[in-house]
Amino acid sequence: MTTRVELSPSQVQRLVERARSGDTLAFDELVSLYMDKIYSYVARMVGDPSEAEDIAQETFVKAFRNIKSFRGASSFQTWLYRIASNLTIDAVRRRKRRENTISLDAPVEGGDAGQITRELEDVTLAGPSGRLETAELQRHVHRAIQELSPKLRAVVVLYELQGLSYEEIAEILRCPLGTVKSRLFNARMELKEKLRDILAESDGG
């Protein structure tokens, strides 16, 4: 996917205002600006590139249909993530009901989907030399993330992998700040437990 130069908040706001007035070219610019981020988030949530592409496209279709109702109470990016989160969590829940399992081995493509960042690395990955090779460890981490409940998965992906703040996540998921922090803590503890054997083995334990 193409890397876009970030626009300033005022430039984004002008594009949003033009899109709200019916300017489809302005909306296309917004799609180009945010598609990689939305796709990356959805792909990390569902673990299936094809399904992620469908949900990402649906996110922007829904945004286009509802752009006139966007009043700017939150940022446009937050609004998009909220739409994508609702669609993604619904899709994950439907799949769980249908299959009672989540596909854990599908590759995640696009952007830096394999990169683990922020405190997740300290909590679950950091340690003495002799760890598993990075690609192998990332595979286990992605597997563990997809075993989390949709609510915990959303928080850990948005914070650890998408780099959003607690406040942004609270707006996206429409929950209190304390709930975001609690879910993130619980997600980290679950991931640490799920990866315990893998990390012990890599340390020669």
Structure characterization notes:
The chain is 70% helix and 0% strand. With 205 residues, the chain is mainly alpha-helical. The protein folds into 2 domains: 1-108, RNA polymerase sigma factor, region 2, helix turn helix motif (Rna Polymerase Sigma Factor, Chain: A), CATH 1.10.1740; 114-205, Arc Repressor Mutant, subunit A (Orthogonal Bundle), CATH 1.10.10.10. Helix 2 (24-46) crosses helix 4 (76-99) and helix 8 (166-173) crosses helix 9. The radius of gyration is 18 Å and the shape is elongated.
Q: In terms of topology, how is this protein built?
A:
Blueprint: H1 9-20, H2 24-46, H3 49-66, H4 76-99, H5 118-125, H6 134-147, H7 150-161, H8 166-173, H9 177-194, H10 196-202
The structural domain count equals 2
Coarse structural class: mainly alpha
CATH class of the largest domain: Mainly Alpha
Beta-strand residue percentage: under 5%
Q: Quickly count the helices.
A: 10
Provide the helix percentage: over 70%
Tell me the radius of gyration: 18 Å
Main pleated sheet: none
Taking the alpha carbons of the first and last residues, their distance comes to 40 Å
Overall body shape = elongated
Tell me the total number of β-strands. Answer: 0
Mean pLDDT: 81
* CATH architecture descriptor text of the largest domain: Orthogonal Bundle
CATH superfamily of the largest domain: RNA polymerase sigma factor, region 2, helix turn helix motif
Tags for this entry?
205 residues; mainly alpha; Rna Polymerase Sigma Factor, Chain: A; Arc Repressor Mutant, subunit A; 2 domains; 10 helices; 70% helix; 0% strand
